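Box 3.1 A note on notation
Throughout this textbook, protein chains are presented in two layers. The first layer is the amino acid sequence; the second is a token string describing backbone geometry. Keep the layers aligned when reading.
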Amino acid sequence: MDQHITDIVTLVTQEGNASIDIDYEDLKATDREAFTTFLTRLGDALHTENRILSVALFAKTADAGYDQRNIAQDYAAIGAAVDEVRLMGYDYHWNGSPPGPVAPITWIREVLTYAKTQISPQKIVLGIPVAGYDWVDGHGEEVTWQQCFDRTNAFHVTVHYNGPHEAPWFRYTDAHGRAHEVWFENADSTKAKLDAVKASRIRGVYLWMYDGADDRTWDQLRRLLPTDTTPPDRHGHPTTPMLSRAPATGTAGGATA
């Protein structure tokens, strides 16, 4: 652990970066104490160099969550140790699950309610998806909003909107006779999540995407939230507002509430 922390701090300082985001996901329940210790010591080391530490955590509505990797992430202890907590508010349904909404609004609200009992709201940033999955034969393919739009046109199908979940969806049959079910995100479903973020008074959001979003999404973001790319300072206070897009497996864009 000591060497890993040293390597990270060295990388951040040598590259002249102001911060680093830690996203370790292959965790076991038995890693809980070690993971917290790692982040605490890494935060201390980075703060000595006047650097900022953020961490991506699985969204959950209780400490145990639904999987052992949720147990490994102690919201309260981690929230006290780092400068910013990025909650991955997506994959409620995923490529290996049955079809369903990627980030139903009822779940998002429960995630925010729980997180605020454990972490300072000014440290919480919610990850909002702007893509989805196309399920066929028991497996979901990641799809962008544009791909969804193109498939509704190609197969002449209508997009439905699930009000309780605030999520668009549609079904179609492909050229091989296979039945598909698609759940994705558009500007309307994103607006519902932005409204929830605004009401929760957390720090802000980032957008998780694999490619372009619904064009109207950016208007919703600008209308509802001032934009920001900079993590809070070491005391959890917001800093300079601006719009950002940071590459990851997908793309993250930050905004403050």
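The chain is about 35% helix and 25% strand. Helices lie at 2-14, 32-48, 68-71, 75-81, 105-118, 145-154, 187-200, 215-224.
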